[in-house]
Design goal:
The structure is a single chain. By secondary structure, the protein is mainly α. It has helices at about 5-35, 45-70, 80-100, 115-145, 145-155, 160-190, 210-215, 215-225, 230-250, 255-270, 280-300, 310-315, 320-330, 335-340, 355-360, 375-380, 385-390, 395, 405-415, 420-435, 440-455, 465-490. The longest helix is centred in the first third of the chain and has 34 residues, at about 5-35. The protein is globular and about 75 Å long. It starts with a helix and ends with a helix.
């Protein structure tokens, strides 16, 4: 079979996958419409429908990963990493419910059986729509890709030595601010505890610039890794510094901030330096879920002096650390339930305003004190700030937060029509992945790794966590490297 026939066969397979995904999505929507009109509700108890929906959730999760492999031939990439995060945070307890492993009840029994059914159904519909958008982006990209386009991309690649130099600059200027912030965070944690980290006055104005500069550690380290061909010591330094950052964040109880750059770095190393065994990613994931996350949870709740004996006892006191970790992460689905309860009963639909706020906060608040001007101008707060204030004002006053969810934000803005927004998010994210990977450009993959190191948290956060990192820490460093590359070409 020649290359043309192979390509046609692959294209045919992709379209089949897309059609299956489309028909499954339509069938899922049809089931919801049927239930809304209640033609069979009196025949099937709500508890049975809930259990059936949970089983379908697990079946479709398996389909998500299988279908992505069928159209991309990839098991691990930025999409499957984010998909895993989205499923754990928005469906962890749904999967546990199938096996009756939610010891405190599904979402701690905060919702009625019918409310729980709606929550699971909307989460499944949102993930399904996102996955449909991602598949669509890959198929459209594969149909447009030609040898000429690929050659054009190859000719416009950023030379790795320029990528490496830009990475070195960003890494070096971020080291001191990063160390200062880490030291200050550890000091507060050791003296006042985990909760104190979120009870401090928010740093704004010029004082916030140190935090912004410190975040350049990610494009700096990842550019050095991707562009450091023939420079093993520089690559190792970048890896060690990311590992140091990860360990320090784990130590103070920040699991998300710790694991995201670690996973991104492993993927980037796998793509640009040396292929890593796929089982390594599985081992890292299990190690985090079974050992690290439970220990970090114990550290968070500890008011006593930390010791090896304390950590060992804390881990041994957990009956099943894996189940405990999945259950805790899956608790983020509660934010979807609360949002569906409060909107539009307590507040109207945002109609896209939270996404606008996410764009407006692109400009860091270094010129004003206190609340970001974008929030005052729009009249809308960050979604998780709003939610915790509605549910538990006292907890909010102490700096507490329940987190949020990209699925909850879609509902907050457009209700059930938010599934179309989630489809668009999947499409845009899929296009970004195709852009980064189709011509194996180290610079593009480094940019994607930087973005993933922030984007993974979007599974349990709001859009304000997406736009600023994308522009400041992914796009602008890439454009700088692109600019220096063009200047180099013009001078030769």
């Amino acid at each position: 079979m020649d290359r043309t026939q192979i390509q046609k066969s692959e294209d045919s397979k992709r379209w089949i996958v897309l059609l299956i995904q489309f028909h499954l999505l339509i069938s899922l929507i049809a089931c919801g419409l049927l239930y809304a009109n209640d033609p069979f509700g009196f025949l099937v108890p709500i508890e049975v429908l809930f259990q059936i929906t949970c089983k379908f959730f697990l079946a479709f999760v398996i389909w998500f990963f299988l279908s992505w492999y069928l159209i991309t031939k990839r098991v691990i990439d930025p999409y499957t990493i984010f998909l895993t995060s989205a499923i754990l945070f928005n469906g962890g307890q749904v999967i546990l419910e199938i096996f009756h492993m939610n010891r405190d009840g599904f979402l701690k029994d905060l919702f009625s059986p019918e409310q729980s059914l709606f929550i699971v159904y909307f989460a499944l519909l949102g993930l399904f729509s996102m996955h449909f958008g991602a598949i669509l982006s890959v198929i459209f990209a594969s149909n447009k890709t030609s040898l000429k386009v690929l050659n054009d991309n190859l000719s416009n690649k950023i030379p790795i030595h320029i990528l490496f130099k830009v990475g070195q600059i960003l890494l070096y200027i971020s080291i001191i601010p990063t160390l200062v912030i880490i030291a200050d965070t550890i000091r507060v944690f050791l003296s006042e505890g985990y909760a104190a980290l979120y009870q401090q006055a928010q740093i704004t104005g010029v004082a916030a610039s140190a935090s912004l500069i410190a975040s350049l550690i990610f494009p700096g380290a990842f550019f050095v890794i991707a562009g450091g061909q023939g420079k093993p010591y520089s690559r190792r330094f970048a890896v060690v510094f990311i590992l140091f950052y990860t360990c320090s964040r784990f130590f103070v109880g920040s699991r998300g901030a710790a694991i995201m750059p670690l996973l991104s770095m492993l993927w980037l190393w796998n793509m640009t330096v040396k292929p890593l065994p796929k089982v390594l990613f599985l081992i890292v994931a299990l190690l985090m879920l079974v050992v690290v996350f439970p220990l970090v949870g114990a550290i968070r709740n500890s008011q006593s002096e930390l010791s090896i004996e304390f950590l060992i006892k804390s881990l041994s006191d957990i009956d099943n650390p894996l189940i405990a970790s999945i259950s805790e992460m899956g608790g983020s689905l509660t934010t979807v339930g609360w949002t569906m309860q409060l909107v539009p009963n307590v507040r109207p639909f945002a109609l896209g305003m939270t996404y606008l706020v996410g764009i407006l906060v692109l400009i860091p608040n270094v010129f004003a004190q206190g609340r970001h001007p974008a929030l005052t101008f729009s009249g809308f707060d960050i979604p998780d700030f709003w939610l915790v204030q509605e549910i538990d004002p006292l907890f909010a006053d102490r700096g507490g937060s329940f987190g949020f969810s990209f699925i909850a934000e879609a509902y907050l803005n457009f209700g059930w029509a938010g599934i179309f927004v989630l489809g668009g998010i999947g499409f845009l994210y899929g296009k970004a992945i195709v852009w980064a990977m189709q011509d194996k450009d180290p610079a593009k993959m480094a940019v994607m790794a930087v973005f993933v190191s922030f984007f993974l948290f979007y599974a349990r956060g709001g859009s304000e966590m997406v736009f600023r990192p994308f522009i400041w820490y992914s796009l602008i460093p890439y454009l700088c490297a692109k600019y220096f590359s063009l200047q180099k070409k013009q001078s030769t």
